[in-house]
Design goal:
393 residues; alpha/beta; eleven-stranded mixed sheet; six-stranded mixed sheet; 23 strands
């Protein structure tokens, strides 16, 4: 495998087009991969030689913060792009505007591979670090598609509060909690767009389920599996999958691990089936825990927070003075006293006090990973945090 740097594609995507046509497998390396040359060299050395052709590699850190090299099949990725094209009703879409790094599996498959397979136009931007460039791209967009993560909605609202972009026909969300409570903002910005919630993981390369926004008012309802995808619960409640589109294997802390067609792979999420055939998330496996015997789901608590707070929010884990597991609510930017009272009112109305956060804090803004997701793993160490409320017991 040879390395293709995302930095080299910032001005011209031709090298990626050429790499896709060549038989040799390649790795698309993010601008800020966070991995050493030694680690990457070791990981590439672990990949079986039979994958040296017609495959590609992408780096991810998932929820653990540890690097992982995911190996995908070009044929599987093209098949997935074709399935998504049909299910997402993408035939009228003529172009896709890129607001996420191409090294992110979601953007790579749902946008670049899709555009390549269906001969559509991909419009690159520098993302929301360059709002003027994004605005120009969206103003001139015609019959366009966007792929976003939920953390981008507050930024879109801030930069383009008085604008709308009728040239966008499809808006997709993945890579985190679906912004159900902010759909009014999304619809105001993109008044002609169908909105979809997409769920998956890097090992799925990356899609497992899909639903239209209006099909549920529950942000944790991830919809039904794609054709050919099978889902089930593991012994500990983790959502497991089998997929004809998924990665063929990965290299993490250990040697290469193949994901065979009969192997059930883990998503890292806890979920349960619903009577209607959809699946409902209860959070990442690290986001569901017990506190004084009461089970806490941070994903469900976030639904309460989102009812009173329309900007960025996350929870990070912390033990209390008695050594019991707890959590802290971190907001950005700083809330007013009225907003803090509204959040506490929501907790009071919906949750026993043992489920409340240890503190409510704020920072000016959240740090983002290169793929546009919030860097949750650094939340507890961010400088300049302001405490607005704390548990007195």
């Amino acid at each position: 495998m040879y390395i293709l740097s995302e930095t080299d594609l910032s001005a011209d995507l031709t090298p990626l087009d050429e790499a896709w046509r060549r038989p040799e497998s390649f790795v698309l390396l993010p601008d800020k991969s966070g991995v050493s040359r030694e680690w990457l060299g070791h990981a590439l050395g672990e990949v079986p030689r039979e994958l040296d052709h017609d495959h590609f590699g992408l780096l991810t850190s998932g929820s653990t913060g540890q690097p992982k090299l995911i190996i995908g099949s070009r044929d599987r990725a093209k098949s997935l792009a074709a399935v998504l094209h049909r299910l997402q009703l993408s035939e009228p879409v003529r172009q896709t505007v890129l607001l996420l790094p191409l090294s992110y599996t979601y953007a790579f498959v749902n946008q670049w591979v899709w555009a390549t397979v269906h001969k559509r136009t991909l419009v690159p931007t520098h993302g929301l670090s360059d709002p003027e460039g994004v605005e120009a791209a969206l103003q001139t967009a015609t019959d366009a598609m966007l792929c976003l993560v939920g953390a981008q909605v507050p930024m879109l609202a801030r930069y383009f509060s008085d604008r709308s972009f009728p040239g966008v026909l499809r808006v997709h969300f993945a890579g985190g909690r679906f912004p159900q409570e902010r759909l009014d903002v999304v619809r105001s910005l993109f008044p002609r767009a169908m909105i979809f919630s997409n769920y998956g993981c890097a090992e799925a390369m990356p899609r497992l389920t899909l639903r239209r926004a209006e099909d549920s008012d529950d942000p944790n309802d991830i919809g039904k599996p794609l054709p050919g995808v099978a889902l089930k619960n593991g012994a500990d409640g983790e959502l497991l999958f089998q997929s004809p589109y998924g990665a063929v294997g990965f290299v993490g802390a250990e040697a290469f691990q193949a994901i065979g067609p009969d192997k059930w792979a883990g998503t890292g999420d806890l979920a349960e089936p619903t009577p209607s055939g959809t699946w409902r998330l209860s959070g990442r496996s690290r986001e569901v825990f017990k506190r004084y015997g009461e089970k806490i789901s941070l994903s469900l608590l976030m639904s309460t927070v989102s009812g009173a707070w329309k900007n960025n929010a996350l929870f990070y884990r912390e033990k209390d003075r008695a050594g019991e597991e707890g959590h802290v609510l971190l907001l950005a930017p700083a809330p007013s006293e009225t907003e803090v009272r509204a959040i506490l009112k929501g907790f009071r109305a919906n949750h026993a006090r043992v489920l409340w956060p240890l503190r409510i804090e704020s920072v000016d803004s959240f740090p983002l990973l290169p793929n546009g997701k919030v860097d949750v793993l650094t939340a507890s160490t961010l400088p300049g945090r302001t405490v607005h409320w704390y548990q007195r017991i």
